[in-house]
Write a structure and sequence with these properties.
The protein is built from 1 helix and 25 strands. With about 325 residues, it is an all-beta fold. The protein is globular. The protein binds (2R,3S,4R,5S)-2-(hydroxymethyl)piperidine-3,4,5-triol. The site of (2R,3S,4R,5S)-2-(hydroxymethyl)piperidine-3,4,5-triol has 9 residues, from strand 7 and strand 15. Keywords: Glycosidase, Hydrolase.
Length: about 325
Amino acid sequence: MTGLLLTGQILLAQDKTINPGAIWPDSDGNHIQAHGGGIIKIKGTYFWYGEERRKGLDSNFRYVSCYSSTDLINWKFRNDVVKMSDPENLGKGWILERPKVFFNAETKKYVMYFHLDDVTYQYARVGIAISDRADGNFRFVKSLRPLGRPSRDIGQFIDDDGSAFLIFEDRELGFHIAQLSADYMNVEKEMCLIKMPLEGGALVHFEGLYYVIGSQLSGWAPNPNKYATSKTLTGPWTAFNDIAPPGSNTYQSQSTMMLKVVGTNATAVIFMADQWNPSHQSDSRYLWMPLEIGKGKLWLPKPQPWTIDLKEGAVKLVSKKQ
Ligand code: DGJ
């Protein structure tokens, strides 16, 4: 759904709704390439980082894109903030997935974590890159195994007090939530280990409860994502329940993040997920929907176009006929 905005002499097409599962054009009209992504907000601007998978990339490199927005609906491509050649002799088909960026208010550095792997997914480490600017370029610093454990899918979480956490999947043990060091350059402290085989980890803190989401381990194929809650990050966590009708396989999507938008009238929590298309990754889509959440329950409504007023925090489902 598009409106026209007159700015000086330029007529800009402005989208008014988020359309889950559809091609999502950026402000240049290109489908957004920010898969397995994460979002941070810096002074009223949202930055969305993700796997850059557009057609025609140089296969020797891995790329991370950065987009910016002030309404979460219209996104401007800023830069490929990472264009990296194989940093640790991982060989052909090496992997950079699920980049997540944290801004450190003390050091003023943007610190990116990403899943770094070889083609067989056995290296299982996180890579860390830094930048002085939100839109790059990021410089590779090192890789590590967080808390000494193998790590594949990662997720990010910033609590209401600004503390930063990495969620990472450890195939042998489960799903870790761990706090970053003060400069964000290390994974320092285990908050909890959830002994469930879950990936695509995401967390949100809403009305005094933590809600964690993960998908099951089925490669690129979607499955019923699940959630649990706890009063503290250290647990105990409730049993896991489905976030959507299990037969829908999370409406063909896999979680990557939950974003909380605190407005003057309401607080929205947005489920952000990927609809992967493994044989044509550049055509992978996004399923973003406001969640029904509260009092220990979380539910992903059936995907449909919606809009959000960031100031008020109000979301509105938009009927397709409009
Ligand atoms: C599932 C993960 O969530 C994705 O990020 C990717 O690593 C695929 N597995 C690869 O099969």
